[in-house]
Amino acid sequence: MIEALTALGHGFGVALEPHNFMWSLVGVLVGNMVGVLPGMGPLSAISILLPLTYSMHPVPAMLMLAGIFYGSQYGGAIGAILLNLPCHPPHAVTCLDGYPLTRMGKGGTALGISMIASFAAASFGIAVMVFASPLLVKIAFKFGPAELFSIMLLGLLAGGTMSSGSRAKGLSMTVVGLLLGTVGSDPISGTMRYTFGLTELADGIQLVALALGVFGVAEFLRNVNRMDMVGSSMKVKLRDMRPSLAELRQSFWPLVRGTGVGTLFGVMPGTGPTITTFIAYALEKKISKHPERFGHGVLAGVASPEAAAHAKTQIDFIPTMSLGIPGDPIMALLLGALMIQGIQPGPQLLTNHPDIFWGLIASFWVGNLLLVLINVPMIQMWVYLLRVPYRYLYPAAMFFVAIGVYSTNNMLFEVGEVFVFSLMGAIFIALRFPVAPILLGYVLGPMVEQNFRRALLLSRGSLDIFVQQPISAGFLVVCLLLVVVQGGFALRGAMRRRRAAAVQATPPHEGVAFLPRPPEHSGASATAAGSGHEQAKLS
Fold first, then answer.
1. 3-class DSSP state for residue 22?
2. Pairwise CA distance, residues 176 & 326, whole Å
3. Nearest partner of 478 among 291, 274, 282, 294, judged by Cα
4. pLDDT in tens, 185-242
């Protein structure tokens, strides 16, 4: 522990050097900006700025790129809560309750809870990185294809029942996401699947196009006839971002649980922050006393996924740096930036390049504190976006969406994908189908398939590998319990509806025999008559 604190002190010395501090500040500012702008995300921003790092020293280059990554998490939450635009896929879950809170006039409270949850979870994640890095590396080595398949299967099952309303609709949307995830070349054999002869689909459907189409543009189409302002009836000031004690108590345990979920998934290589936020949200909804309120504006639906995303974002650097296993495309891009500098990620990174590793950890604390200090005074600018009329806001947002999608791979075809998915999302929303499980199925589907096939290749086609490994078997047992519990809930709900329908269908005069009550004097007369008869009989 003393060695870790000593190394952390050295890292603060590296991160607070004027040159390194300046590039860290540039990174968090750029990340926050691209997170707020509709259609812009950290992946495109890091891709655009990656050539700039060719001539930079490795330490400031990594501090800047990492600052863009976790800075976009803060900005992405602002866009998701205020504009219902998940510019980064993990914030799709934040839209479910963050945007309804904005429409209820509680956007400032949601932003305040989001920033508190983000900073607290990020601080906990950084502390875990400092004190538990050697242990977490050992745990990460125990996750093979069988274990990853089991935990991702659990994520699919939990996400399918996460949606509000009908569970059947939620599962059907998950299946839609799974089907969309199979488009493109086969990850093992390379065979084209469901491309319909279009070479642009060889690499599959782009995640950015799907997320922005189904969530962002679909919301535009649903409200296309509105002529008022987005926040015309809402006024958010700095004091609105200070949640009350009751709201803090309401958000505390969701924040703790979300941090725990993010920490757990952060040590698992190959899992991105999207699955983390979905499972954190699903966990909160399952244990809530009022699950029907989720999706209509609940602070727990903002605190838990935001905490999970930020804890996961920080801890995700452990398998990325120490094992060379990225959790998502952005981490893969950061790995590429390291390799461009001639640095090989792996277990030797901590000993061969301590300036990069510990300087990066210290910069996380510095950067997160800068983001809180930057966002609080600038909240008026974000709220001002809500007072722009729809006829101005929508074309501007559509422009940024198109630019952001096009800049990812410089393909107009992906802009067309956004258009198609926006129509599909608008239709699903109109039919009251939840669209959030689509993204979960799309993200987890290919990963489930790849790890399932890899496990079968390692076991030569035997399914026993999934139950022979203790970790995999444990997650499969949890999956089975989840199916049984959900089936029990569905059966109990069906029986309740059947009894309620039977009671409503039964007329008042049927089913129960109402016997007229005899008058008291009749009873008395009968009793008296009976007594007289008995006396006459005796005499």
1. helix
2. 26
3. 282
4. 887 777 888 888 888 888 888 777 787 778 667 766 766 655 444 444 445 566 767 7
